[in-house]
Structure formats: C-alpha cells, structure tokens
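Data deposition worksheet. Section B asks for the primary sequence of the deposited chain exactly as it was used as input, without tags or linkers unless they were present during the calculation. Section C holds the resulting structure in token form. Section D is free text for depositor observations; keep each observation to a single sentence. Incomplete worksheets are returned to the depositor.
Section A, Depositor: J.P.
Section B:
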Amino acid sequence: QVQLMESGGESVQIGGSLTLSCAASGDTRIRNAMAWFRQAPGKEREGIAYIDYFGNARYADSMKDRFAISQDGAKNTLFLQMNNLKLEDTGQYYCAASASWYAGLTPSRYTYWGQGTQVTVSS
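Section C:
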C-alpha cells in the first residue's frame, strides 16, 4: 500500500507562486512513477507533470513553462512549483503514484492518489 498526502494549496492572487508538497509513504516498490494532476470544477482531471522511475521529469505541453516538478532524494516527497499563476489554475491538485516506471499523464495508469489540496487563484 501507498499513502499520499498533499499540502501547500491556498488562495493566491494572479501572478503569484505556490509550492505544493506530497508526502509519500508505504511500499516503495509500487510508487515508481509519481505525478501531479489537477481538476477544475466541471472539468476532467488533467495531468501536469510526472517523474519516472529514473528521475526524469516530463510535462504536459501547456504546463512546462510555469510548473516544475521535483522530488527529494529519498523519493518520499514530491513537489510542484507553480509560478505566474492564472485564474484557470484554480482547482484541486492531486499527487499520484504508479507501480509502472513510465506511467505518463494518463490518470488510469496511477493506482494511488492523495486527497488533494485546493489552489484558488483570484484577481
């Protein structure tokens, strides 16, 4: 089993920055790829970025200019640095873990999910 807990979400103004964290615990053998997703009200969950088993970061095309994913050396904490936030970045942000080495940004490839943390961007 894997447990994931996100933190760091809050209300910010347009143009602000936030860093989200995801604390991971449990079996390291089944959290090989880690990712961040988000879901806005009334919209489908969308992938932001993931880190594969070898530590390589990959981003959705629309996210790579303002978002940065990283993890600590022990792979126990996943981070998402978000810059120049826009109104459309408002939503619930989730981290996810997959036993696959290269899970990509398809939600169905991730078995374990956190409860999410809310990010609200306002003018």
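Section D:
Residues 95 and 110 are 10 Å apart (CA to CA).
The chain has no helices and eleven strands.
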